[in-house]
Amino acid sequence: MGLGFSGRKEVILSEIQKEGRVAVSKLSSLLGVSKVTVRRDLQRLEKEGYVLKTYGGAVSTDKVAFEFSFQNKLQRNIAEKERIGRYAAGLVEDGEAIFLDNGTTTLQIAYNLKARRNIKVVTNSLCVVYALEPAEGIELILLGGIVRRGWNDLYGPLTEKAIAELHVDKAFVGADGVSPEAGFTAADLRTARPTEMVIQSAKEVIVVADHTKVGRVAFVRFASLEDVDMLIT
């Protein structure tokens, strides 16, 4: 049985994400459907704001880069994220208190901190908690708040109130977009505010982002280039 529209949508957006554009003929072969079906799908995706139709295919819009689910993002550019995570974890010194946000790249930092001792990790990410809960040498602090379903993180007034009381040595945060003009941007307003507050109180701010985020602008800015001490990509 062939894929329904939702399944074809994932494949189409994945292909466009790789190259920035895709041809109807390629999608027809890849999906095992007619070119008529592909054109109909592209027309629907254009109405939803994901693509712009061109002669013989379609090109991406910014929305494509930022609308994948957490699980989908988790598997994208995984080798690069693992490398970034190892390097960033090496910057954490004994006795420090750090913040890890809800990103898939910051999650890789958590994986590389498991064997460390005598550090405090503050986070609004349930995935970071799951990763570090077995690590007896780490004091783990989960911020309260509203659960953002599908992303396994927390946001809202309770999250912001807790952040206002804390001062960490290093804040490691992800970004959906990094550009000289717009600075560091996020796709979701709900998570941008907590990140902005952490940046204001942290002694050192480190943004971790794979190469696909560079040169892109997402929905809302949470930091200027001057607000950040280091970018690891």
Task: Tell me what the CATH architecture of the largest domain is.
Answer: 3-Layer(aba) Sandwich
Category by helix and strand content = alpha/beta
In DSSP terms, counting alpha (H) and pi (I) runs of 4 or more, how many helices? 10
Low-confidence segments: none
Helix content: 40-55%
**Quantity of strands, as a count:** 14
Radius of gyration: 19 Å
Oligomer: single chain
Order of the strands making up the biggest sheet? 6-5-4-9-12-14
Spell out the key features of this protein.
single chain; 233 residues; alpha/beta; 2 domains; 6-stranded parallel beta sheet; 3-stranded antiparallel beta sheet
Fold blueprint:
Blueprint: H1 5-19, E1 21-23, H2 24-31, H3 35-47, E2 51-54, E3 57-60, H4 62-66, H5 70-74, H6 78-89, E4 97-100, H7 104-111, E5 119-123, H8 126-132, E6 138-142, E7 146-148, E8 153-155, H9 157-164, E9 170-174, E10 177-179, E11 183-186, H10 189-201, E12 204-208, E13 220-223, E14 230-232
Parallel strand pairs: 4-5, 4-9, 5-6, 9-12, 12-14
Antiparallel strand pairs: 1-3, 2-3, 7-8, 10-11, 11-13
